[in-house]
Amino acid sequence: MHIPAYAHDTIRAAVLAGIPTSRQAGGLECRLCSRPFGPDLAAIPLGPTPTVGLSGCRPCLSRLVTRARRDRDAALTHDAERARAEFAAWTPVREHHLARLNSVRHAAEAVAGLARGDEIEALRVAWLLISLESAYTWVPDTPKAPACVDPDDPDVSELKDEAFRLDLAMITAREAVAERLAYHLVNEAQPDEPEMCGELECPKGCSGRHDSSEIDCGPDAVFEDLAEHEILVEDPGPGPLSPRLAALVGKAGAAEQERSSPLTGIEEHAPAVLAHCGIDADDIDVLVSAAAVGLVDDAWREGPLDAIHAADGGPSDGEIFAQSVDLYRRARSALVAARDDRPEKLLAFAAVASDVDLPWAGGSRFALRTVREDVTEFVRHVDNRVWFTSEVMREQGWRAGLLHRAVSAAVKAPAHFGMPGWPDTVGSAMERLAVLDRSGAPESLADLVAAQTALLEAPDRLGADALDWLCHQGLFC
């Protein structure tokens, strides 16, 4: 008797239900109906071999095959109906998604066209891009196709193709708007006088307005412009020259390299700036302390940390205060270690300042990895600023690197811990603290003498909560 594959599970379930008797195990009775085998009832082996295992009779097996066939047909019918229903529900969602993609793509193409023309003003172009970006952001995720649709089906491929076309249109629109706004700002920044265009080789009758077809800064200007913002990108330089030309331009190349060194003249001008701010540049101990404050402020406190501070779950003012004190000590140690042509020692400070798993100082349980804000830009910012200082030291000497960061501290953080003005800040804060109601203040602020000593020597000893309380009272303003 042939038993079709779709009936195997049904028969197996019936055969394995319960415990077979000894006669059934010996192949003397049907495992399904317990009738004895004989001339009128043939045994049909069910395995594992024709001579060993359980057996069933033809009537029982035929009945089970019929039941399995009915169950299979019902399941196929149900699956087909479900597939039709899923496809019917997905089709309008797909069509609406395609319509949305096409609409936003057409809008992007229109914005790009308007940005390239002169019909509307630059400000209106900017607002058009903003509204376009909003529309692009609101495009929902691609609706997932039901299981009955093959991944390579044209209906699925069309969704991917239209999404890709939209991305291309958005790139084109952004480029067109960026070019329009960039040259709008350049043109608005200088008067409408042709004599102001001496560097642009303007044609006769120039109106003073220019676009990308008339302005060319050369291949290397962008690297110099970024260096002014303390972002150093390696300039690939010109291609290799022939030996004869290389011999002719060798000296000129060396002179150009000397001229383009970052922060040229820092040792000449910085001491005067520091002296004006009350910092003796010849006192190495004071200079290193100020440089450490500047390095922490420039590389860690300034920039992306503001977004992390404002984010949900971000650090408090007291936690930032305590961590900045701890980093000041680390920055000072790294700067001292960087002496004698070892600027790579600053990497030790960068590793701690950008560590996303390190709990912060002052007893805080905050770590950068706990905040929802993306910290990638913060880590990159720390690395770039520390690397820039190491490059200044490498090219112009250890003292030049100290002067650079010390000037930054003198201008932006003259009253921070580690600066000559910090004791006066603490004295003023303690005078104001003495007359405040401290009933709700942290316990570490109960003893004013001990609190003042801690503020002068190591503010993070007071704890992040105490520092936060002091900050909220405005005592350091």
Labels describing this entry:
single chain; about 475 residues; mainly alpha; 3 domains; two-stranded antiparallel sheet
Shape: elongated
Strand order of the largest sheet: 1-2
How much helix, percentage-wise, in residues?
A: 55-70%
- Termini separation (Å)? 96 Å
- Summed over residues and divided by their number, the pLDDT gives a mean of 83
Tell me the number of helical segments per DSSP (H or I, 4 or more residues long): 17
Q: Class by helix and strand content?
A: mainly alpha
Tell me the Rg in angstroms: 39 Å
Please give the largest β-sheet.
2 strands, antiparallel
Order of helices and strands: HHEEHHHHHHHHHHHHHHH
Low-confidence stretches: 194-201, 210-215, 241-261
Quaternary state of this entry equals single chain
Number of structural units classed as domains: 3
Number of strands: 2
Taken as a percent bin, the fraction of beta residues is: under 5%
Structure described in brief:
The protein has 477 residues and is an all-alpha fold. It is built from 17 helices and 2 strands.
Q: How is this fold's topology laid out?
A:
Elements: H1 8-15, H2 22-25, E1 44-48, E2 53-56, H3 58-116, H4 122-137, H5 154-188, H6 221-227, H7 243-259, H8 266-276, H9 284-301, H10 305-310, H11 317-337, H12 346-353, H13 376-396, H14 398-412, H15 422-434, H16 448-457, H17 464-472
Antiparallel strand pairs: 1-2
Helix pairs in contact: 1-3, 3-4, 3-5, 4-5, 8-14, 9-11, 9-13, 9-14, 11-12, 11-17, 12-13, 13-14, 15-16
Explain this structure to me?
The longest helix is centred in the first third of the chain and has 59 residues. About 7% of the residues have low confidence. The relative contact order is 0.06. It contains 17 helices and two strands. It is elongated. It is mostly helical and 477 residues long. The protein has three domains: 52 residues, no CATH class; 98 residues; 207 residues, no CATH class. The protein has a two-stranded antiparallel sheet. Helix 4 packs antiparallel against helix 5, helix 12 runs antiparallel to helix 13 and helix 15 runs antiparallel to helix 16.
